[in-house]
């Protein structure tokens, strides 16, 4: 299969002030420019394209998004779209699904797998991470999600080479044998993936910071200050996000022998957030009260 270039956005910041532009605001042209510069065959929107907290537009943002999708499709490029947590806030996301039915180059893949240009995508909308990880039917190439940080761990259980998610917590790294790309508030952040029987190169942009990732090499960065680079490649937790994922996956296997309470205690001691532990391992079950305990508490 020849090399295919993919460009990815998420959480479209309609109407915000465009960086590097004298008073300009983010509109359709703000996305068409990087598309023209990178010349992708596929453009991914990893959630919150039709409406997002990043936006400041007073216009119909769903119509702006549809206009962008139609412009991209008219140029012969494919659009791969997943629904985000804010997309249907105004009850308008159905128009995106309708456009996907009408235009063969627009693929709304929320909750399903679809092959586009020989690449197998799986769309994981917000809140479906656990269910889809547990019911995965076969390997895919790229998972496209819009996952909260606490639920993102489930994406690493999916049989895929690359995880691409929107929502927040921008980052690029190799984690658990997968390429992991998290975007937010595009077009200020975007990623370019060169794919040929797997990912060969990922170029990541976050403002003026540029990071390149290759399968067998250390990443290279330009224009990033040290703190920003650490956040974008390691995360902001007490552990690096790579370590957190690997520790949580190992802990899941250890629950059967050590017990949930002991495993959770160890994870908390490492600085992993309680919500992240509970979303993956489940909440600790309350012990059934004894008659003596009920009597002490005045319960009959």
UniProtKB/TrEMBL annotation:
Pfam families: Metallophos. InterPro entries: Calcineurin-like_PHP, Metallo-depent_PP-like. GO terms for molecular function: hydrolase activity. Residues 5-167 form the Calcineurin-like phosphoesterase domain. This is Calcineurin-like phosphoesterase domain-containing protein.
């Amino acid at each position: 299969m020849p090399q295919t270039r993919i460009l990815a956005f998420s959480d479209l910041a309609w109407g915000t002030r465009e960086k590097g532009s004298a008073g300009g605001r983010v509109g359709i042209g703000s996305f068409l420019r990087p598309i023209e510069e990178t010349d992708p065959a596929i453009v991914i929107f990893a959630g919150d394209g039709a409406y997002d907290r990043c936006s400041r537009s007073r216009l119909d943002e769903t119509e702006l998004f549809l206009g962008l999708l139609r412009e991209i499709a008219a140029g012969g490029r494919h659009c791969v779209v997943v629904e985000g947590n804010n997309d249907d806030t105004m009850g308008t996301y159905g128009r995106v699904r309708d456009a996907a039915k009408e235009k063969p180059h627009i693929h709304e893949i929320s909750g399903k797998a679809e092959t586009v240009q020989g690449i197998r995508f799986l769309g994981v909308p917000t809140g479906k991470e656990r269910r889809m990880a547990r019911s995965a039917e076969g390997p895919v190439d790229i998972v496209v999600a819009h996952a909260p940080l606490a639920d993102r761990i489930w994406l690493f259980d999916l049989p895929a080479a690359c995880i691409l998610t929107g929502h927040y917590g921008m980052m690029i790294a190799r984690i658990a044998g997968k390429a992991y790309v998290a975007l937010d508030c595009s077009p200020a952040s975007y990623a370019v993936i060169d794919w040929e029987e797997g990912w060969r190169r990922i170029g990541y942009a976050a403002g003026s910071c540029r990071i390149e990732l290759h399968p067998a090499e250390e990443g290279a960065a330009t224009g990033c200050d040290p703190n920003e680079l650490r956040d974008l490649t390691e995360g902001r937790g007490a552990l690096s996000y790579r370590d957190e994922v690997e520790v949580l996956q190992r802990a899941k296997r250890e629950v059967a022998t050590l017990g949930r309470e002991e495993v959770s205690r160890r994870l908390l001691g490492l600085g992993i957030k309680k919500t992240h532990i509970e979303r993956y391992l489940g909440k600790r079950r309350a012990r059934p009260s004894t008659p003596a305990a009920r009597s002490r508490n005045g319960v009959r």
